[in-house]
Each structure stands twice: as C-alpha cells, then as structure tokens.
C-alpha cells in the first residue's frame, strides 16, 4: 500500500484535521439511509424486519454516542441486535473477533481475512461492504453537499494552518465528494480508513513538529473527540442538526482562539459539553 505520508511537508505551525461524513459534508444521513442499512437488510435477508432494523441502524450510527463508528463496527453492533431479537446470524463470533482485533477495519483488510479464514460471516460482510461501495456511487454528488459555512471556514483556516482530512470513510468516496465541490484545493493531505485509525493518523501528523496546542480535530462524533484527546490536541465539534451554526462559530470564535492561545480550558470544556448533550438528549 502506498505510503500517503511520504513527501508530506509541514507548511505552517498550525494543523486543522477535519472529518468528512456528517462533519464537513452533508452525506451521513443519505449514505446510511440509502446504502449501508438497506444493503445489510438485503445481504442478510432481513426484509420482514426492515423497518425496525433500519430504525435501529440510524439510532446507533447517527443519533447516539456511537455516531461515526467505522462501518464494520456498526455492522457488528446491528448484527448482534439481529441475532438476539430477530434471526440467528451464522458465524457471528468471527465478525465480532475481527472487528475487535483487526489493525485496520477496511474492505481490503477484510478481504485478506476472508481469504485466510474462509469465514461465512466475514464473506457476507465483504459482499455487503462491496455492495455498499457500489450503491454509494449511485448517489448523485449533487446530493452530497458540504454544509453551509465549510468553504468559508477552509478559506480562512488555509491562511495560517495546514488542513488534513482525517476520516474513516473510503478514500475514493472522499476524493470524489470533495473534488466535485472543488474543496480539495484547500487540503494538504487526505487520510482515510485505508491509512489507519484517526488516532493513529493524528499521531503521525504530530511527528512533523506541530505543537499540540496548535492542532485541532474537527469532528461530529465521539470517535473524533476520543482521537483528539488520545493525542493531546483540541477537539471542535460539529453538532448534528446544528451544523451551520457550528461552522459559523468555528470561523467566528474557534479559529481566533486557536491562534490566540485561548482555546484550552473553559472554551474547550464548553463546546465538548454541548456536543455530548446534543447526542444524549
């Protein structure tokens, strides 16, 4: 696999890491509703329970503290629920073990595990993931827009900071979506599920000499928050249903606080509290 970090250079003392789905791009709802959930219903022949399972998928993946988890982690959680309440899932433990122990939760990693083990449930998970990838391509880029305020925030941030996409999404999706709206010109590097966890990616970027109090991770999920905390950098939340307002505040307050050294302390605590309350209400 290509080393995406090869040749990367730090151009500024500040670094802004940005998640994509549900954070910069208004893609999370449509991807889960039109692709990930219905493809699972199809692959495991769960049509008679479709409404309940679709509802449960959205609860876990969009409107809870599990928001933003990797697609295979979400699949495992839902299949546990299916196995307990609707229909036996063959070989489920193999999927749960892979999700728990794999160094990389990606389609390529799963394919290698299927070839190694021949596990029935991992083969179905692989078929599901490839079906998802195919169905995502059928969603028009016109329906996967950046949230209001994203372009303006990137323009402002680019003046003093390096900008890196750090996402658990598929690389091809991100390049297509950001490229369609001409947003890649603001970005120094694109890091996706193929490059490791968000925590790992932030840690690798810190090796280029960014002071930790000059780095912020912008995200919409607790995964983003935990990755930032693990690496000792700031976290700025984009809150579900309040995305426009979140990006406006980032431009009007957070960017200045980052440069002035007043992001830490009360302001960081305030935005994190609002973030958690928004997902647990």
Automatic annotation (TrEMBL):
It comes from the Bacteria. InterPro entries: HAD-like_hydrolase_sf, HAD-like_sf, HAD_2, HAD_sf. Keywords: Hydrolase. CDD domains: HAD_like. GO terms for molecular function: phosphoglycolate phosphatase activity. One of its GO terms (biological process) is DNA repair. Pfam families: HAD_2. This is HAD hydrolase-like protein. It comes from Candidatus Fusicatenibacter intestinigallinarum. The lineage of its organism: Bacteria, Bacillati, Bacillota, Clostridia, Lachnospirales.
